Amino acid sequence: MASFIIYFSANTLRANAWYFHARNNIQQHTSSLNIIELLNAKEAITTALALDPKQAHYLHMLAYLELRHYEYLITSNEERQFEFEQLTILSAETAIKRSVALRATWAESWLLLAHIASLKDGANEGVYYYLQKAKAVGPYQFKVHLAVIQIALANWQHLSPDFKQFYVNELILAARHDHKFGYVFTVAEELNKLPTLCLSLLFGKSFEKIKRRYIYKKSCK
Fold first, then answer.
1. Could you give the residue ranges of the DSSP H alpha helices within the chain?
2. Which residue of 22, 86, 178, 210 is surrounded by the most CB atoms within 10 Å?
3. Could you tell me if 42 and 73 are in contact, meaning their C-beta atoms sit under 8 angstroms apart?
4. Which long-range contacts link 137-140 to residues 24+ away (Cβ below 8 Å)?
5. What contacts 113, CB < 8 A, 6 or more positions away?
6. Nearest to 129 by CA among 97, 157, 98, 91
7. What is the three-state SS of 22-59?
8. pLDDT grade, residue 3 (50/70/90)?
C-alpha cells in the first residue's frame, strides 16, 4: 500500500509539472502562439494525461489546444488536409466531453464544448443544451453571456427562435456588466456582425446606458 501511495503521488507531481509546462507556454504566448509552441504544449499535456488520465483540468487543456490547432489548420496557407482538420476538432470534442463528465460544475468547460460543437456542427440543439448547462452553473458570469452572444452571432442565419431569445436574454444581462460590454462589440466586429448587434441594441430600456457610450456611437453609426 505504501509503495502504491508513493507511486501515485510521484505520478501526480510529474503530471502537474507537465500540465504547468503547457499552461505557462500558453500564457506566455496568448495571442502569438506559433505552431511549434502549440505542438510542444500539446505534447506536454498529452504526457500529463498519460500519467493522470482522469484529471478534468488536463482534458480541458487538451481540448483547448486541439481547438487552437484546428483554427491554425483551417486558416494557414498550407495545403488543406480536410481529414486531419476533422480528426483534430473531433479530438477536441472528445477531450472536453470527458472533462465535463468528470467535472460538470465548471462553466468554462461547458462553454468550450459549446464552442467546439458549434464549429463542428453549427448552432444545433446540442450547442443550445451545452450553453444552457454553462448558464446553470454560472448564471451571473459575464463569460457565459459573452459566449452565448458570440455563438449566436456566428450562426445567426440558422438560429432557432429559442436560441435567438436566449441571445437577447444574455445580451440584456451582459449590458449590466457595463465596464465589460466592450468585449461584445469586439466579438461582433471580429465576426462581421456589428450591424446585427447594433440592431439588437436599438430596442429596450436595458441598453440605454450602453447607447450613451462612445463605443456604441463609434460602432453603430
1. 2-28, 35-51, 56-75, 82-102, 107-121, 125-137, 142-154, 161-175, 182-190, 194-200, 208-211, 214-219
2. 22
3. no
4. 137/104, 137/105, 137/106, 137/107, 137/110, 138/107, 140/173
5. 63, 93, 96, 97, 100, 130
6. 97
7. HHHHHHHCCCCCCHHHHHHHHHHHHHHHHHCCCCHHHH
8. very low
Residue 79 scores a pLDDT above 80: no
How far is the CA of 12 from the CAs of 8, 16, 49, 58, 139, in angstroms? 6, 6, 10, 12, 33
Q: How far apart are CA 112 and CA 106, in angstroms?
A: 10
Task: Tell whether the model's pLDDT for residue 168 goes beyond 50.
Answer: yes
Residue 17 pLDDT: 78
**Among 139-143, 158-162, 202-206, the least confident range:** 202-206
Asked whether 20 and 55 are in contact (CB, 8 A), the reply is no
The C-alpha cell that represents 69 in the structure block = 490547432
pLDDT in tens, 84-143: 899 999 999 999 999 999 999 999 999 999 999 999 999 999 999 999 999 999 999 999
